[in-house]
Amino acid sequence: MVGDQTIPRSEYPRPQFIRKDNWINLNGTWRFRFDDGNKGLKERWYNRSSEFFEKDILVPFCFQSKLSGIHDESFHNTMWYYKKFKIPSKGLDKRILLHFGAVDYNARIYLNANFVGSHEGGYTPFTIDISDFAQEENEIIVRVEDPSKDNEIPRGKQFWQKDPGWIFYPRVSGIWQTVWIEFVSKEHYIQEIKITPNIDEPSITIECYVSGKGYKDLRIKALVNKDAREIAEYQTKLDFLGDIEKKRKRRNLLEKQFGIVEKLFKIHPANKFEFKMSIPKEDLELWDIEHPFLYDLSLHIYDKNTQKIYDQVESYFGMREISLSEGQIEIKTECDTITTQNKVILLNKKPVYQKLFLVQGYWADGLYTAPTDAAMKKDIDLIKQFGFNGLRTHQKAFDPRYLYWCDKLGVLVWGEMGSPYAFSTEAQKRFINEYINMIERDYNHPSIIAWTLLNEGWGVPGAEFDACKAHYTLSLYHLVKSIDSTRLVIDDDGWYHTKTDLCTKHFYTNLNLLPDTFEEEKTMNYPEDYEPSIYLHGFGYENEPIVYSEVGGYTLDYNNNIENPVGYGKVNTSEELFSRVIELLKVFDKKKTWISGFCYTELYDQFQEINGFLTIEREPKFPPGKLKEEVEKLFY
Fold this sequence. Notes:
The longest helix has 18 residues, at 425-442. The relative contact order is 0.10. The radius of gyration is 25 Å and the shape is globular. An eight-stranded parallel β-sheet has the order 29-28-27-26-25-32-31-30, with helices on one face. The protein has eight helices and 32 strands. The chain starts with 22 loop residues before the first strand and ends in a 5-residue tail after the last helix. The chain has three domains: 28-177, Sandwich (Jelly Rolls); 189-198 and 200-317, Immunoglobulin-like; 322-631, TIM Barrel (Alpha-Beta Barrel), CATH 3.20.20.80. By secondary structure, the chain is an alpha+beta fold.
């Protein structure tokens, strides 16, 4: 299916796992009804017809947004969606997968009055096999529960009070990413892939999860293309699928005959396996911010004898490595050579100064959902136009297509998810489960170089006085490292650090309070009465790179239309905003021998919080190119 301009967000929603022609986009007009009395389950609304659902809503926009057609920002904890759709007759012979990009927060799915599945978590995708329930004419009904005031769910910046205020914004409930149907083989199909680059060999390791039962002629073939030219191929038979004992026997035979075991035959579950593909050295191009080169990857499952293709998936990857220096290093700049006083961040073994924007991911009319794919690309273009090289996604797991544009255009990303605000076993389970799902979804994006786990102690209030919360923070760091050892991990951004790859601090506008020397910086004390402890008791600074991951935030009401504006230092004109920003960046430039970067708060205004370089409509408050000229003279 190609993009259809009559369907909102009609592009294929999963850019790193594409099946080109066998899908149906279910975005568009659905029927909708609030269930404020929470009586829909008892009254079996999943049996109701279209007329019962009294409103129209435009999916994938949440009901609080203008683009949804409803634009109701009051409290509604439970809602129902209804849509009719057809499946072509040839599709009924396939396995039929129903995909949701994201539904906030708890979804129950019914197809033709049958309960087919559920999902908890507002940021991550889920898939339901509806093959046994689908027919040519179908009715899908979705019940969503999103407790407006529950602070045990990872709600991020969604406010639990009626109206947005302070640094919190409108709530987002229900479907907010694309819904689609996909047709795959009943016998064999690829469920997921995980791609890990190694720039030293150079090679990629692919972890692949395949549905189905193997047989002797079943094969998988992977091809790597560079600029439409094939540069690497790998094939192996899949006779072991679904049979762990057969997999063990093949492993033992190889070990007995050759004294080695192919990486393919690690003892994973029977349908999950790994293989490695070498990248010819003459074809090696690294992904970086100046040259974000991407290789194309395709995988086929087929029958060697008949040449029948069961499944074909298109993807891409970047060859890049993120790491830390072992200690001090020398860095050559255009003007001189500097020697750092602590560790620095390395991209492909070269120092990279973090010039980031805080990006919160709201649009004026769509809230969490960008109105178009082009709107997401525009955000990334603007980051580069200002002369910055990355972003910290803040309190939201971003749309995969947003991350695609970061990959494509060469922008560094610190990944983050919304936090809960309460500390409880329930809050911990919800956060951990969804964070793991986010990492699994986003693992293959080369632009992501770091995972930020917590922010400013949200979800661990009073951790200074509670050892349980320190243990939890530390456990999150090690948990994420066990899932993804290839990226940097920040345990609690801003303060309350335990074990962390980066020492991050939050500091806004009073430049006189910044430490003057590295020795003063290493005391890890904020000015008295400013903020909590940088490190929790029993933990301390271990020479990590230091990044001021929230700075600036100067407040300019550019169009004089904001009531009760929020920010961190009022300015009155575009010229004053520009001069204050330059002053701030020059102070950080003087400290670049021990400070490895900053994250300016923020790229664009968010409702009442008006500290962006852009308005929420993405209108620049001063010419981006003017700042880029100055930024290019600074840092390294």
